[in-house]
Amino acid sequence: MLTLLNILAGIALLVWGTYLVRTSILRVYGAELRRFLSVNVENRFMALLAGLGVTSLLQSSTATALLTTSFAGSGLIATAPALAIMLGADIGTALAAVFLSRDLTWLSPLLIFVGVIVFLSKQRSNAEHLGRVSIGLGLMMLALQLIVAAARPLTQTVGVKAIFTTISGDPLLDLVIAAAVTVLAYSSLAVVLLVATLTASQVIGLDTALPLVLGANIGSGALAVLMTLSSSSEIRRVPLGNLVFKLVGALITIPFVHLIANYARDSGFGETQVVIAFHLIFNVALAALCIPLVHRVADLTHRFLPAAPTIQDESRARHLDPHALPTPSLALTCAAREALRIGDFVEQMLAALGRLMRDNHRSSADEIRRLDDVVDSLYKQVKFYLTQVSRTPMGDRESRRWTDIISFTINLEQVGDIIEKSANDVVQKNIDRNRNFSEAGKLELCDLHMRLVSNLRLAMNVFINNDVNDAQLLIAEKVKFRELELVNYDKHLGRLADQTVQSIETSSLHLDLMRDLKRINSHFCSVAYPILESAGVLSQSRLRAVEHERAEVTITGSGSQRV
């Protein structure tokens, strides 16, 4: 029982080490790896080499599959070059197995020691993740040593020999077992290394090991298919095509495994070398056989998984890629793109509010209510997406960006609510009562409205570029907006003193709208303060004023009235 637990612990340690390497490299170089994949798809051979290089770093063809399928789903990579990338990814996994199967007993403790030192001394930086990579590689090598040591007593156990003797007579059963174990272990690399270790310990023979290697390859393809079952057709095509390649290659090879095993035994090479070499040769041969067929298989996947009918659902997020979540920098980029989309809908709401104030179009109020529902839905999706992005491995820059994005989306959602409330006020106090603003009052509100639209566009530019000069310009526009509001307030009082009938009838609404437009402008301008503060261009007196303004926005947003 203790021996079995030691083997299971070794397998778990092997899988955990693979996970550490994969996730850490994605967090540090995820954006660069995606960019590398996206620009190296001019032809299928370049795509194959790109997949090989990325997988050699990640130690996981499944991780490369998720990166590639996300590109295919976004339309950035066609299915054919994506399939070529996956063929290269399988070769990359085989090369990683070659490296890890070597006798590196001395290297394992060194990698773990150095990795822990770097991890503890360089936290909240890229060096922390590189330390995790070193720890992961060391744990993978240590796990292989533990499995060998634990499995050695099993070679003399009659029951274990009987079990493996039973399954060794059925290559197809071996293939299915290895595929299932690969899916459960989330790593074909871990399973291939485990098979090589068990073969070296004489727990299993080559007649069993070679079908298990084929099964591990099929399992990695099946894992990618299972992980994308709920995704769109565009995303599911790449894993399906890759699985077809693996199945065809395995079915062609399986009748010859006994012949290959007999030849390997006579060659004089060690069992571990044979297993690892078979894994590498199979994937290289599969790539050579299938690379000319990627376009045909891509066409087959398009027929089997046709694109779903396009449904324009504005309230559904378009840029929140779940496969980017393990890489904070990529996930934050996705969230920022969706936040800008929310800003576009807020701009549409502002345009509708302008028509409503100018022309008393009731339909514009209905449009604002519909768009506010869209903004609320997108805001909730962005907020939930950001909560899924772990802030623990982020550096200071990424943490600030996370805060900026959530703050910007909160401000936009609150602006949407203010616009909807203003539209309802216009309907109830003007349209329903058949009232109109005076021409002078209407011009004043339209002028504020035009400045507001311009400031929204400037705020979105500041949000995406973090430019200090634009941030200063946005704050300057806020001062001008406040001064214009005061001027318009005095003009409105003058019209009341002159007994202008339309101004008297709409006075309450006019003042409420000016106040609401000022609140909206404050929300837009708030995006500039973190940028100016981090650049050190805000004086202490200005910082206190900023805190006062933020508190004022919060108070007015909760429903207090101010004339």
Structural write-up:
The chain is built from 23 helices and no strands. Helix content is 81%, strand content 0%. The longest helix has 38 residues, at 2-39. The chain is mainly alpha-helical and 563 residues long.
* Biggest sheet record: none
Quantity of strands, as a count: 0
Number of helices: 23
Residues in helices, as a percent range: over 70%
Key words describing this protein structure:
563 residues; mainly alpha
Summarize the topology:
Blueprint: H1 2-39, H2 44-58, H3 61-74, H4 79-100, H5 107-121, H6 126-151, H7 158-167, H8 171-185, H9 188-200, H10 206-227, H11 233-253, H12 257-267, H13 271-290, H14 294-304, H15 328-359, H16 362-388, H17 396-431, H18 439-465, H19 468-497, H20 501-505, H21 507-525, H22 528-535, H23 540-557
